[in-house]
Design brief:
single chain, alpha/beta, two-stranded antiparallel ribbon, 12 strands, globular
């Protein structure tokens, strides 16, 4: 086993629309920043992996255009996942663990503004029974929220408090899309109000991973990945208990999240009701700082929001604001797929 750490993180300012920018234009400043943080040049990176979705771009193999921002010549070792960038980070972590690379660049991006995101995301659903009904992402989240309320696991006040806290914390995040007061009385899909739902926006993020002494040379306080795992729920929503997330609990157990308490948790909870579920299954008490960045309720660039959770958790370790942090990413409807990572600072390394 090798010690692998996140040694640098960068993200773009998240905006409702970036019509004037292509995916490459969106990525370039982020890639330059994350490389400058470590002093590495692109040709010194051992492995590059990206996460994005062709459905957002509306064309096949759209990720190949983004490689113009990385520079594919001279030839590089490169891969891509049609998934949130958190899963690209997992692939890069595996690559380093096998000894095939000592460093890796992971990036993700999403431009949601050109299309109707709620309709696009229906393409994730079971193509025979569910997708033909066209239930959009907010409607499905509303079903989950209503199940949570009916079970007595949360109430309207609790959901509002989560939305308010997220917007308040986001005020200190210069990259957040939404800050300030939560809109009141604006019902989107019962029982979810506008403040319970993520904003639609464009953004990008990148991290650099490194192993062992290379990580220590590149970063004063690396965020060591002590455990990482991802699991998936059944595809059919009707066979799941939407008030629970067994896959998150299992991934957390395999990542070592329950071995010792964490002080920070960056949870990829695009809806307030999902934070309630995640806090429960991850056994996060009131002493844990949850989503100090504002989380996905403040900025939710699809395909990058999960990677940002890992980056934000790592950044807090880099600057000494956290010693042991949990990062979570999700994909699919109603917390269908979940990834959990545990990060530690050097002082917490046994």
């Amino acid at each position: 086993m090798r010690d692998v750490a996140i040694v640098a993180f960068a993200q773009s300012p998240h905006r409702r629309r970036t019509d004037e920018l292509s995916e490459v234009d969106l990525l370039m400043p982020v890639l330059h920043q994350v490389l400058e943080t470590t002093g590495l040049k692109a040709n010194e990176i051992g492995f590059t992996c990206s996460g994005s979705a062709d459905y957002l771009a509306g064309r096949a193999f759209s990720f190949t255009m983004a490689l113009d921002g990385v520079g594919a010549h001279p030839p590089i070792s490169e891969s891509h996942v049609e998934m949130d960038g958190a899963w690209a980070l997992y692939e890069a972590w595996v690559k380093i663990m096998t000894g095939e690379a000592d460093t890796a660049l992971v990036y993700a991006y999403g431009k949601s503004s050109p299309g109707q995101v709620r309709d696009v995301l229906t393409r994730q659903l079971d193509p025979y029974y569910l997708a033909p009904l066209w239930p959009d992402s907010v409607a499905l989240a509303a079903l989950q929220a209503q199940a949570l309320l009916d079970a007595g696991h949360a109430d309207r006040a609790a959901l509002t408090a989560i939305a308010t806290r997220s917007r308040t914390d986001a005020a200190a995040n210069p990259y957040a899309q939404l800050t300030g007061d939560v809109p009141a009385g604006d019902l989107l899909v019962h029982p979810l109000r506008t403040g319970d739902c993520p904003p639609i926006g464009d953004g990008a993020a990148a991290v650099i991973l490194a192993a062992g002494d290379t990580a220590r040379a590149l970063c004063a306080r690396p965020a060591w990945i002590r455990g990482i795992d991802h699991r998936i729920e059944a595809h059919a929503l009707g066979v799941r208990d939407l008030t629970d997330s067994p896959s998150t609990r299992l991934a957390a157990r395999h990542a070592g999240a329950f071995e010792r308490p964490v002080d920070t948790a960056e949870l990829h909870a695009p809806f307030t009701s999902q934070e309630v579920i995640l806090r429960t299954v991850l056994d996060l008490g009131d002493d844990v700082r949850v989503n100090p960045s504002g989380g996905a309720l403040a900025a939710n660039p699809i395909m990058a929001a999960g990677l940002i959770r890992l980056g934000e958790a790592a950044a807090r370790i880099h600057r000494g604001a956290s010693d042991r942090a949990l990062a979570h990413a999700t994909s699919g409807p109603c917390l269908q797929q979940n990834l959990v990572a545990v990060l530690e600072g050097e002082s917490a390394h046994g």
